[in-house]
């Protein structure tokens, strides 16, 4: 029985990155032997065990064979499987390296060379048997694009082939969402969508995003013109502003309504906010997006225009925006909303470093409205009915915003 450190831990060590978790491959052992050594079985589809002390994952070296569609359509064997055979079934060469207990790197498929030359390249034709790998490659691009990594042309071609063969239809919504969410945590989330577009599968996986490319906007407000390019720029900006994946998700979808504007109306996009809200609703239902992500995305899609025009609105209109956003009860979410809107504002050529005055003003206006002394209003108001108190608070908040506006 021999054990080898494999996968991301080896890759990240060679890149000089912090190792987040360690995975191990066991060669020359059986499930029975692992159980005798007090390892705990955890694998649902193939033999994976937790070490009795470290709780790190140890998987028996295995060979997989495709027997049906999708990423569960495999049979496997673990008897007399070599380390090289196990590594061959992995997705990318940079993830198909192993390390012995003495520190020797075992690299049968050129992972070290691809690390040096910054290529994300598939290991073998077996890559095409698992459709999840299309999303994983795009996610690795989002992780390593800032270091100069690119997807190898032959891997992009294979990803395109997978899409054409209909394998992506086997992906379950939960897995697509999981990969999207993880991509949004990466340093360069825009690379995830760029790679999917380059491999011609964005239209299959995320048709709502694909529909934005080639759709023009008013060049007076959008020098970049193309809505898809604008979305990419917004993703770049939101990644600089926050690591909050729900804000990044909302920024991604903020303009999806423009993808359904009739060509005859271009470059105007009247009512794209309302149309966008409907699209976001269906998008989130399809991928089973968590409710907090979906709620923030709907808010940003519907009201980002009102946020941008805040400096021209009356105190009553500003308060109306706060109330529609449920800002007084969900203050943290309203702050997320403002961040996504700021990313939208900055996601244009020449605006990347400009101050977002509308957002700053709304933050100050909300603070003024929020700090209204409700106890004093209750003490002063003779009519103690709920409707009267509500109206008095409403008027006090408008007055507080008005005082700020005059400064």
What does this entry look like structurally?
The strands form three sheets. This protein has a seven-stranded mixed β-sheet. A two-stranded antiparallel sheet has the order 6-7. The protein has a two-stranded parallel ribbon with strand order 10-11. The protein is α+β, with helices and mostly antiparallel strands. The radius of gyration is 26 Å and the shape is elongated. The N and C termini lie far apart (76 Å). The protein has helices spanning 8-15, 31-36, 83-88, 111-117, 132-144, 153-164, 173-185, 190-198, 202-205, 207-210, 227-241, 245-253, 272-287, 291-308, 315-324, 331-346, 357-370, 374-380, 386-406; strands at 2-6, 23-27, 40-41, 48-50, 57-60, 63-66, 74-77, 98-99, 105-106, 119-120, 150-151. The protein folds into four domains: 1-117, Beta Polymerase, domain 2, CATH 3.30.460.10; 131-205, Hydrophobic Seed Protein (Orthogonal Bundle), CATH 1.10.110.30; 208-371, no CATH class; 374-406. The chain is built from 19 helices and eleven strands. Helix 5 (132-144) packs across helix 8, helix 14 (291-308) packs across helix 16 and helix 17 packs across helix 19 (386-406). Strand 10 (119-120), helix 5 (132-144) and strand 11 form a beta-alpha-beta unit. Helix content is 51%, strand content 9%.
